[in-house]
From TrEMBL:
Its EC number is 1.1.1.25. Keywords: Amino-acid biosynthesis, Aromatic amino acid biosynthesis, NADP, Oxidoreductase. The lineage of its organism: Archaea, Nitrososphaerota, Nitrososphaeria, Nitrosopumilales, Nitrosopumilaceae. Signal peptide: none annotated. SUPFAM superfamilies: Aminoacid dehydrogenase-like, N-terminal domain, NAD(P)-binding Rossmann-fold domains. This is Shikimate dehydrogenase (NADP(+)). The active site is at 66 (proton acceptor).
Length: 273
């Protein structure tokens, strides 16, 4: 029987998840479809009811529902309960189970490059939903410490408390306090949405060197200004599309029980690039 999957969020028209998953269905000859479904912030409950009515087999969750969605789950995978946010849901005859594949998706590019996170000093820009999954990832891989820099200090404080609670030494600062301190870090991650509209990087990367790992989770454009500045310094660069593919291939495996066709998914995302 044909199966239907979806990604829910708002805005949703620019989501690349339908392209990625559809390419995987074609590659593996699966009788499945994947739709982008716009659900406004205050209409999540009705949105989920309509997904159940059409017997959705599973769905991805994105901004602004990743935390709110937790309320509507019948079961939680550990990945989801520890992060406190959900990005992947399975539907077993109306029983919804939540997973979070963002953390593993984030860590995958480090593994692919054989980069060991243990004892590294991290500077994380941003303190939103994505930052939470990233903090759990760095805690799991035993980073030495994390500085959480955010425009709104209050949000940095919250994530910092969370990091300390799960055993990762953290301190919160405002982004404009970073100044020339980037040389003190082994890894610098942009988990703010800055770059999506081609804005210039919010920090200077002048102090970094060829050993610094610079990771932008913004994937569109592929070469953000932040990534370009890191390349100019010869740094080790990790692209946002790698995390996107990492979380998508894990969601695929959860839904279909087989390994995702990574290269077909990557090709759908990058085209001929
Ligand atoms: P996500 O789920 O992708 O993390 P989010 O929860 O909306 O999205 O978080 C967006 C992050 O980008 C926040 O850290 C936000 O900073 P604030 O906490 O101060 O809102 C950050 N951000 C968004 N626009 C920004 C801007 N123009 N300058 C600096 N930081 C920005």
């Amino acid at each position: 029987m044909s199966k239907t999957f979806a990604v829910i969020g708002d805005p949703i028209d620019h989501s690349l998840s339908p392209n990625i998953h559809s390419a995987a269905f074609r590659e593996l000859n699966l009788d499945c479809s994947y739709i982008a479904y716009k659900i406004a912030k205050d209409e999540l409950e009705e949105g989920i009811e309509s997904l159940k009515k059409i017997k959705i087999s599973g769905f991805n969750v994105t901004i602004p529902h990743k935390v709110e969605m937790m309320k509507y789950l019948d079961k939680l995978d550990e990945s989801c309960s520890i992060i406190g946010a959900v990005n992947t849901v399975t539907n077993d005859n109306g029983i919804l189970k939540g997973y979070n594949t963002d953390m593993d998706g984030f860590l995958e590019p480090f593994k692919k490059r054989n980069l060991n996170i243990r004892n590294l000093k991290v500077l994380l820009l941003g303190a939103g939903g994505a930052a939470r999954a990233i903090v759990v990832g760095f805690a799991k891989e035993h980073a030495k410490s994390i500085t959480i820099a955010n425009r709104t200090l209050e949000n940095a404080n919250k994530i910092s408390e969370f990091a300390n609670k799960i055993g990762l030494k953290a301190n919160p600062i405002r982004i404009d306090e970073i100044g020339e301190t980037t040389k003190n870090y082994d890894v610098i991650v942009n988990a703010t949405s800055v770059g999506l509209k081609n804005e210039p990087s919010i920090i200077s990367l002048d102090g970094i060197n060829s050993k610094t790992i610079v990771y932008d989770i913004v994937y569109s454009p592929i070469n953000t200004d932040f990534i370009k500045k890191a390349k100019e310094k010869g740094a080790i660069v990790i692209y946002g599309y790698e995390m996107l593919l990492g979380q998508a291939s894990r969601a695929f495996q959860i839904w279909h029980g087989v390994e995702a066709p990574y290269n077909a998914m990557k090709k759908a995302l990058l085209g001929g690039v």
